Amino acid sequence: MEKSRHIIIREEAVISIQGLYKSFGDLQVLKGIDFTLFKGENVAVLGKSGTGKSVLIKIIIGLLKPDRGTVNVLGQEVDQLERRELDTLRLRIGFSFQSSALYDSMSVYQNLAFPLTMNVKNLSQAAVGMAVEEVLEAVGLKNKIHEMPSDLSGGQRKRIGIARTLILKPEIMLYDEPTSGLDPITSAEIIDLINKVQQQYNTSSVIITHDLTCAKNTGDRIAILLEGRFLKIGTFDEVFATDDKQVKGFFNYNFIQ
Amino acid sequence: MAILPIKKFVFSKRIDPYFTGVYEAYKFTALFFREVFKRPFHLREVVNQSFEVGIKSLALISLTGFIVGIVFTKQSRPSLEDFGATSWLPSLIGIAIVRALGPLVTALICAGKVGSGIGAELGSMKVTEQIDAMEVSAINPFKYLVVTRVVATTLTIPVLSLFCSFVALYGSYVNVHSEETSSLVSFYQSAFSTISFLDIFSSVSKSLVYGFTIGMVGCYKGYNATQGTRGVGKAANQAVVLAMFLIFIEEVVIVQVANWIRYF
Ligand SMILES: Nc1ncnc2c1ncn2[C@@H]1O[C@H](COP(=O)(O)OP(=O)(O)OP(=O)(O)O)[C@@H](O)[C@H]1O
Ligand SMILES: [Mg+2]
After folding, report:
1. Is residue A64 within 8 Å of residue A58, measured between CB atoms?
2. Is residue A118 part of a domain?
3. Would you place residue B189 in the very low, low, confident or very high pLDDT band (cuts 50, 70, 90)?
4. Cα(B39) to centroid of ligand 1, in Å?
């Protein structure tokens, strides 16, 4: 499970966010987010439930619009893009949903083939089949190819969800709570998978999680989101070496569990 | 930050949503017309959905059509008998069924069966983030889910409604035949002798409108579902209620227009 070394290019930012605000009605969720993700880097975002972690990555991929601030992904302002440009950008970003969000009327194979056949024209059956097998291999679920999502366990669904994003060979991965609701062993498998994806596909990732183990083992840096702002960003040791009560609180809370 | 109180609602918290709802529905429909003529057309999905709408409703529509034919004939017979005019039965039934009953019965059945199905399906896709999942894989979910379904219902329901009229006429023949001898061919001949091209035309165009309404309402309600599983039930339910309501309004309007053309 331990994280191995890999190259992070600190001169090249793939995501850069400045002064990001977002509210729903009266509810202010994000209040001034500044954040940079470098090429090849994994950043784990920790934060209490309902602090706007999911909202943040949904803004990054353009599912939600920011109220204020700039969100630059791979050199483009996400909220300024036309539909077509946004789609082109989205092909370079993988988004793994908190709920997996598999298409439940389709088999595993169809789930994986769907984004590919819809985006790449004139692909032969064989080429699609090969791509599907490759990503299934990567997530270690080759034997589930003909099952329906409803027949899979939660952890398997998560992995198929990740495989579905990998099939388009993204440069950035956004994981929304990849290990939530899973037992420690399955969590460890997912953590390994995230690290493997980083190395094999050379991605930069944002990993949202409640789980300190996951954050520690996947994140090159850890960011703590509290009350709509990043309270602290740094390596695991840096973040948890502080005396800040709120950060400590998060630390303790996780160990009581 | 805000020092001055800002007036938040035009009328009230309860009333405003009705008006914004109408506007949202209008925008949704306008988006359909903007997207429907643009590539990609997802023809395969349109065929799949048409199959889904058509084949799966066929049994129910046949049964209902048949029964409507029998019952309507049975009920009309006494009043014609009073005038000794039972020989007019086929033409009376023919007009009633092709002009009004066929399209309306089909539309109401499909509003229940197809509309609720679409509402529930899209609703559950919405609340389980499957629609967002399409969006992030650079697939336009509106085109793939909404446009294909609305096109499918718009094209399929007229066919179903003609089929329903045919079966209803057969039901009517069965009843007529049980009372007096007449051949199927002569029954259909006398039924169709009074039906004009305008009847068929208005019947088909009515069904097109109903089909469009059913697809659009189902998709709109499903696509905008909120609040988890409860929202899915609500979307399915509202899809049926709203579609039926609109179908009755459209029926009244179209009949007026058709009559106006007929006697112009
Ligand atoms: N589409 C939306 N409309 C209205 N409010 C929303 C919407 N999405 C999120 N919210 C609100 O924003 C807040 C943050 O939500 P978010 O889903 O980002 O939390 P989270 O940090 O991901 O929590 P969790 O760890 O439980 O997933 C919540 O209070 C939620 O109610
Ligand atoms: Mg979340």
Report:
1. yes
2. no
3. confident
4. 35
* A117 lies in some domain: no
Q: Is A24 in the pocket of ligand 1 (CB under 6 A)?
A: yes
State the Cα–Cα distance between residues B139 and A119, nearest whole angstrom.
Answer: 7
The Cα angle at residue B47 between residues B44 and B48, in degrees rounded to 5:
85
Q: Is B20 exposed, middle or buried (0-12, 13-18, 19+ CB in 10 A)?
A: exposed
* Residues near ligand 2 ion, CB 5 Å cutoff: A 54, 98
pLDDT tens per residue, range A42-68: 999 988 888 899 999 999 999 999 999
Q: Determine the Cα–Cα distance for residues B187 and A106; give it in Å rounded to an integer.
A: 48
In this complex, the residue of A58, A95, A115 whose CB is nearest that of residue B139 is A115
Report how far residue A121's alpha carbon sits from residue A130's, in angstroms, rounded to the nearest whole number.
16
pLDDT of residue B161: 95
What's the confidence (pLDDT) of residue A3? 62
- Cα separation, B239 vs B113, in Å, equals 10
Structural domain range at position A187: 9-92+170-255
Residue among A83, A101, A119 whose CB faces B129 most closely: A101
Q: What is the pTM of this model?
A: 0.88
Supply the CATH number for residue A42's domain.
Answer: 3.40.50.300
**CA atoms of B90 and B194, how far apart (whole Å):** 9
**Residues ≥6 apart with Cβ < 8 Å to A222:** A43, A44, A45, A46, A215, A216, A232, A233, A234, A235, A236, A239
Helix, strand or coil, per DSSP, at residue B155: helix
Residue-wise pLDDT for B120-178, tens only, equals 999 999 999 999 999 999 999 999 999 999 999 999 999 999 999 999 999 999 888 88
> Does residue A50's CB lie within 6 angstroms of at least one atom of ligand 1?
yes
For residues B104 and B247, the answer to whether their CB atoms sit within 8 Å is: yes
Mean pLDDT, consecutive 10-residue segments, chain A of 257 residues? 68 90 91 91 89 92 93 92 92 92 94 93 90 89 92 90 91 91 84 88 90 88 88 81 74 54
Question: What mean pLDDT do residues B110-119 have?
Answer: 94
Note whether ipTM > 0.90 here: no
C-beta separation of A51 from A230 below 8 A: no
Q: How many domains does chain A have?
A: 1
